[in-house]
Amino acid sequence: MKFNVRRLIAVAAALVGVVTWLVINPESYETFFEVNENDGAEIVLNDNLDNGPLVSEVLEKLQVKGRAPKTGYSRDEFYSGWPTVDGCNLRQRILKREFGETAKLDGCTVLAGEYTEPYTGEYMVFENKTQVSKIQIDHVVALSDAWQKGAQYMDEETRKKIATDPLNLLAVDGAANEKKSDGDAATWLPANKKFRCQYVARQVSVKYKYDLWVTQAEKDAIERVLESCPNERTVGIQDLWYNEDDREEAK
């Protein structure tokens, strides 16, 4: 009996020690407990909207120019197929990001899930892999648009980053994406008006990040959208924006 009491006291003391250590050193959580992250099939974007600059401020930093010729454009100038990132196909990573906790996985492959599709505003439920396959991964700044607004003058590595940056990728309804084609904000906006502010915010963010320009018609269209959301903030470019002087010197 005494042995059991001593053993219980020892175990309790050990647990108290572990808890105390975790409170003092929260970063050591994973040292003690293994965390299941669905085989790594998740991308975390730097979407801290509290710290990002206003879309209107960043828009003023973009060059306004006419379209360059589309001559020479092909998707292969940017990438050939979705790359594998940390063992998982990028398409599957974006699907997992959008479906969130509802995603059902087989390794890295998303088999089912549900989410509010951004371009239509429709809540969609996917019960099997065949249904999921109908979802397309859209380049928010279309690659053809990027090509005509600066990317054709960039190196291969930069163009690949534009095509595979999660900031520039959204899982969307196939029919809506096909209607968009390679349009910019002057020629196409999501039917879901509630998403338009976020949509142009992401376009401006991508164009700023990769030094792509806008046409005057495109800038005017973005400004009209921002009239309803003047406090809309950019996404994922905080570090670049707040180190603008260093960025300019590096060009």
Largest sheet: 3 strands, antiparallel
Distance between the termini: 76 Å
What number is the mean pLDDT?
A: 84
Q: Would you count the extended β strands for me? A: 7
Task: Give me the strand/helix succession.
Answer: HHHEEHEEEHEHHEHHHHH
Structural classification: alpha+beta
> What is the approximate shape?
globular
Q: Tally the helices: what do you get?
A: 12
Strands of the widest sheet, in order across it, are: 3-4-5
Poorly predicted regions are 1-49
Fraction of residues in H or I helices: 40-55%
Give Rg in angstroms: 23 Å
Percent of sequence in beta strands: 5-15%
Count structural domains. Answer: 2
Task: Provide a descriptive summary of the structure in words.
The protein is an alpha+beta fold and 251 residues long. The chain has two domains: 1-35; 38-250, no CATH class. Helix content is 42%, strand content 11%. The chain contains twelve helices and seven strands. The chain has helices at 2-24, 29-32, 55-59, 90-99, 129-132, 143-148, 156-164, 174-180, 196-209, 216-226, 238-242, 244-250, and strands at residues 84-85, 88-89, 104-106, 109-116, 123-126, 136-139, 169-172. The strands form three sheets. The protein has a three-stranded antiparallel beta sheet. It has a two-stranded antiparallel ribbon with strand order 1-2. A hairpin with a 2-residue loop joins β3 and β4 (109-116). The longest helix has 23 residues, at 2-24. It is globular, with a radius of gyration of 23 Å. The N and C termini lie far apart (76 Å).
Summary tags:
251 residues, alpha+beta, three-stranded antiparallel sheet, 12 helices, globular, disordered N terminus
